[in-house]
Each structure stands twice: as structure tokens, then as C-alpha cells.
Amino acid sequence: MKNKLWILLRAAMTLCAWLAGGLVLHRYEYLTAFRAIDNVVGMLPVALALTGAAGASALLWMKRAKRFVPVSAAIGLLVVLSVALFPLALRGNWWIASGTPGDAESAPELSAYAPFTGGLTVRLGEDSALRLTGGLPVLDGALALYPVYAAFAEAVYDESAFSPEYVLCTNTLGAYQAVIAGERDIVFVAGASGRQIAAARQAGADLRFTPIGREAFVFLVGMGNPVGDVTYQQIRNIYSGKTAYWSSLGWPEGGKIIAFQRPEGSGSQTGLQSIMDKLPIQAPQPLPDPGLIGTNSLMKQISVEWRGVQPALGYSYRYYATTMYANPDAKLLSINGIAPTVENIQEGSYPFVADFYAVTKGEPTGNTKALIEWILSPQGQAIIEKTGYVPLPKPY
Fold first, then answer.
1. Binning pLDDT at 50, 70 and 90, where does residue 103 land?
2. Is pTM, for the whole model, over 0.85?
3. ∠ CA 268-109-388 to the nearest 5 degrees?
């Protein structure tokens, strides 16, 4: 009787080991996307999960004899290593080499959009319903949103009271740090990353997010790339490391996908994290040639050539990619057959539509509150539309 109970217990524990391995693989989409795995690095989490389950099962059923101690120790070590290495394998973070896809610091010239001086600054075309002559809110924000909030300032701020320190651009990361520290009245940014939310919580900063417009998060490839449409799941497969070759997307000649990424904390990297949800993003993989890193931005790296093809994939926000820092040798991909047009963004049929925000530390008051209310008015929304972004659905 005792022997039968022990057998049943071992059978139950074996089942639990395999169920645990299966649940982990299901959680990270290795079961549902198994056919999309086309590379060794992408297959490693599967191998480790199966090795851990098989090793645990072997230990449970191995005879308890002195001669099997070395074998049991080896299998036990294999199980421990499988569990310990699994998180590393999820991100494909095996590389020490520095030749990995990244984004350099090249950026568009902002002076063309500066309030009262920029030749590209959008004008309202009529007198603003709000005019601030003193106590001007200090603005900051994402690089891609500078043309929008610079136009707000020109429309609302009295020129005689204005000076450049009222409209700054320290980019998304710097803007969040500044508003958390209380050094800015409003920052104009995409949604916050997990780290930025944590930093605000740690500093005791109650960030308030007011949606003011909509934008599409887009994926880009070179014009020489014949792929024009990908699915939401294919994007998740690529950036989680399961799919590494263009042949899996219907382009056999494309070779390995060079999947560029942006720095942690940037607005576009936060956009990618939102799309991936809780699925780990694969660490940037080594480039076939370190020279492909280049000296420009991700927008320029998209059109890089390697062995006669353009194998790069990247992402940005639509306005930045098509207007502010466009690359004529790059194209936007449709997702699930839907292109990122203004109409598709406005109605929400394009899958990757995100609001952008006016963010304040605490509830806005005084001129800060008045400015945000004006931004949500037809005049403020008109500036958003004229700039090239998508206004909020009416009524505002």
C-alpha cells in the first residue's frame, strides 16, 4: 500500500513538473507561436523548459541507489541550470559584444518650430480665445511633440512676456524626470513607462495624465523590402525573439531581420513595451557588421543595406516618421491589413493607436489648468490637426 501511494505521489509530481513547463511556455506564447520559431536563440526557452521538466521527472523516478548518485547530481544540476537560465533565454541576452542594434543621437533641428521664430511653427489663423500675459507655464516634452506644444505657446502666450526657457525640449525621459521633480508645469509625452511610474511613486509625485490627441505607433522597413503588411502576432514574435528571419514573413531573400530598438524610457520604446504587454522584449542581437550601427537615428538606420537587401525593421510614431524626420527610403507597414491613415487612427481601426498627454504633477491649477482646457477646445485641437497629429474624437 505504501509503495502504491509513493508511485501515485511521484506520478502527480511528474505531472506537475510537465504542467509547470507547459504553463510557462504558454504564458510566453511559445506554444501558440511554435511554428513561428525559426532560430536557435528563439528555441532555447522551449529547450530549457522541456529539459527542466524532463530532468525533474527523471529524478522522481530514478532508483535510490549509491551507484546512481553521480547521475542524479548531474541531472539535478541540469534542472537547476535550466530554471536559472530560463529568464536569460527569454530575452536572448547571451551577448557581450557591443555591435548590437541601437539608436544614435541624430535628431531633427527644432529651431524651425520654435515659438515666434520658427518658420514651420503652425499658426492658428485667428486670435486665440486664451491669452496669457504673465505666469506662463513652463513646457517640456517629447521631441516628436515639440512642434505641437511650441505652437500652443505661440498661440496663447503674449510675445512680450515670452522667453525661450518657457518652452523646452529635453525629450521624453528628461521631461518625465523634470515634471516629477516639479521643474515643469506641463510635459507633453506619450504614456509613462513602468520605470517612470515607479520613479513618480517613489518621489511622491501624483502625475495627472490628460489625453489631448491621438497618434499611431508605426513599424517601418526600407523601400526595397517587399513586405508591406505584418500581423500583430508577427510583431510580437519578432520582438520576443521567436522569429528572426524575413523568410518567415514571406521574403526568403531578406535574410536575418535586423530589429532595431530605442533606448529604455524613450517614448517609442514605451510604445513597443505597450504592444508587447507582459511579453519580454528580446535584447538587441549582434549586428552582422558593427558598421551598420551608423551615426544617424533609427529613422535613418531603417534603410541600411546588407548583402544587397534592406533587412532592418524599426518603429516610431507616425508624425515623426512621416513629417518631422522622414526618411524617403523608408515605408510604413500596415498591421493586420490596416494602414496607419488619419481616418483609421481617428476611428481606432488601426491596431496601434495611442493617446498622447499633457502631464502635470498634481491637479493642474491657475494658468496651467487654463492652458490645458484651451488645448482641449476646438482651437487647441485645430492646432493638433494642423501640425499633423490626430485630434481627439468630437466633441472635445
1. very low
2. no
3. 60
- Give the three-state DSSP class for 76: helix
| Alpha helix segments (H runs only) across the chain | 2-27, 40-61, 69-91, 146-156, 171-180, 194-203, 232-239, 267-276, 298-301, 318-319, 342-347, 366-375, 378-387
Question: Looking up cell 524617403, which residue turns up?
Answer: 328
**Span 38-66, mean pLDDT?**
91
DSSP helix/strand/coil, 266: coil
In angstroms, rounded to a whole number, what is the distance separating the alpha carbons of residues 176 and 269?
A: 14
Is a pLDDT exceeding 60 seen at residue 88? Answer: yes
What proportions of the chain, in percent to the nearest 5, are helix, strand and coil?
A: 45, 15, 40
Helix axis angle, 366-375 to 146-156, nearest 10°: 110
Listed in sequence order, the residues at least 6 apart from 199 whose beta carbon sits closer than 8 Å to its beta carbon are 176, 177, 180
Please enumerate in sequence order all residues whose Cβ is within 8 A of that of 27, keeping only pairs 6 or more positions apart, or say none: none
| 258-306 residue pLDDT tens | 999 888 878 788 889 999 998 999 998 888 877 776 645 778 889 889 9
How far apart are the C-alpha atoms of 149 and 115, rounded to whole Å? 9
Contact at 8 Å (CB) between 358 and 372? yes
- pLDDT value, residue 104: 46
